[in-house]
Design goal:
392 residues, alpha/beta, 8-stranded mixed beta sheet, 16 helices, 22% strand, globular, disordered N terminus
């Protein structure tokens, strides 16, 4: 199925999970910033809530409403058949996401999500990448703060360095932000599935083609003081370095030998040690169902920080890239990472897939691989900073 054959679908974009916390922010962003000729719809299982959301949107009368439920695969198939691009906020994705991925892969609809769950991404590659390549569908995971700033930031940094030489990039994340109930639920679920996550990674490794003539690595690294950014660097065990590694595997611009490391940057050592202890305690508690339920009850899915709190939130990801005798310092920065900026990244990625002139790709792809320069320019125009801070 060619992409041209999908132009007669009634919607350019369908937003599934539109009444959730990030879903509603994304819907409002689209209503305020999308081109006027965008044909789009909101989707979910509660038509009443979708109708109320539509009434709150500027120009909402032109927005469609589709009922779809993760427990009813036929409704997800119908959703995919109605859209050129499907963007979903419904997680935890490893529990609720696969049927929609399968529907998009089978019908040739492009798919985006906000997952930070490595197990889910690996399983979707194993089960649906081949079919998506046949139909032309692009399956793009991690289209929010996980992992757009890191993936496009590493891509932006690499483009400042010489071609055809070994390259290294280190990313250092700092942020001041709160998180929602949906994020907490996904994180706790992921922490409780360590064994399954490793099994999915091994299964993917058996299926992925080898990379002849090139080497790409993303080692965890070790805690250290990073003089180049003036902070303690703590390895971040998130999905982000995996996504960067996959972009580097897919794009020869990253050079014949590429290494990426991913850190949290913390100014004061006591704060760094406290953060490590807190994450360890939560991870341990997540292994016990009663403790996991207690933590989940602290913040329910659908709840999130207030507009006032989000207005004060910010993020910065600094990159240090080296290769070919050059060293470059870059930064990707913006406002509230978990919600306002995630909604912006998510919406702009969906619009990018729907409208921009992009390189020909299909199957499971990353934001850098599928959208690279086009999405970077969209996000710059939307107020997210991509800059070269210094170079030598």
């Amino acid at each position: 199925m060619s992409r041209m054959s999908r132009t007669d679908r009634p919607y350019d974009l369908v937003l599934f999970g539109a009444t959730g916390f990030v879903g509603a922010l994304t819907a409002h962003y689209l209503a305020a910033h999308a081109p006027r000729d965008l044909r789009w719809a909101v989707a979910g299982r509660d038509e009443g809530r979708l109708e109320r959301l539509r009434e709150d949107l500027p120009g909402g009368a032109d927005v469609g409403v589709l009922r779809a439920d993760v427990t009813e695969p036929a409704t997800l198939r119908a959703l995919a058949e109605h859209a050129r691009v499907v963007a979903t906020t419904v997680g935890p994705y490893v529990l609720y996401g696969e049927e929609l991925v399968a529907a998009c892969a089978d019908t040739g609809a492009d798919y985006l999500d906000l997952t930070g769950e490595p197990e889910f991404v690996d399983l979707m590659y194993v089960r649906h990448d081949a079919r998506a390549r046949e139909t032309g569908a692009r399956l793009v995971h991690a289209c929010g703060f996980d992992s757009v700033p890191h993936d496009l930031g590493a891509y932006f940094t690499v483009r400042q360095l010489p071609e055809g030489v070994p390259l290294t990039v280190d990313g250092y994340v700092t942020a001041d932000a709160a998180f929602s109930g949906g994020t907490l639920a996904s994180a706790l679920n992921q922490m409780a599935r360590g064994g399954r996550m490793l099994a999915a990674a091994r299964e993917r490794a058996r299926c992925e083609p080898r990379l002849p003539g090139r080497r790409v690595t993303a080692p965890a690294g070790a805690p250290r003081y990073a003089a180049e950014v003036g902070a303690w660097a703590l390895p971040l065990p998130t999905i982000d370095p995996r996504i960067v590694r996959r972009s580097a595997r897919a794009l020869e611009r990253y050079g014949p030998d590429f290494r990426y490391r991913h850190y949290a940057a913390v100014r004061r050592l006591p704060v760094a040690l406290g953060g490590v202890a807190a994450v360890g305690a939560v991870a341990a508690a997540a292994q016990l169902p009663p403790a996991r339920r207690w933590l989940s009850d602290r913040l329910k899915p659908g709840d999130g920080p207030s507009a006032g709190k989000r207005a004060k939130s910010w993020f910065s990801v600094r990159f240090v890239g080296e290769g070919g005798g050059r060293r470059v310092f870059t930064e990707v920065a913006g406002g509230d990472p978990g919600y306002d900026e995630t909604a912006k990244m998510f919406a702009e990625a969906a619009l990018c897939l729907a409208f921009d002139d992009l390189p020909p790709t299909a199957g499971q792809v990353t934001t850098a691989q599928a959208m690279g320069d086009a999405l970077t320019e969209r996000l710059r125009a939307a107020g997210i900073t991509f800059r070269v801070a210094a170079q030598r």
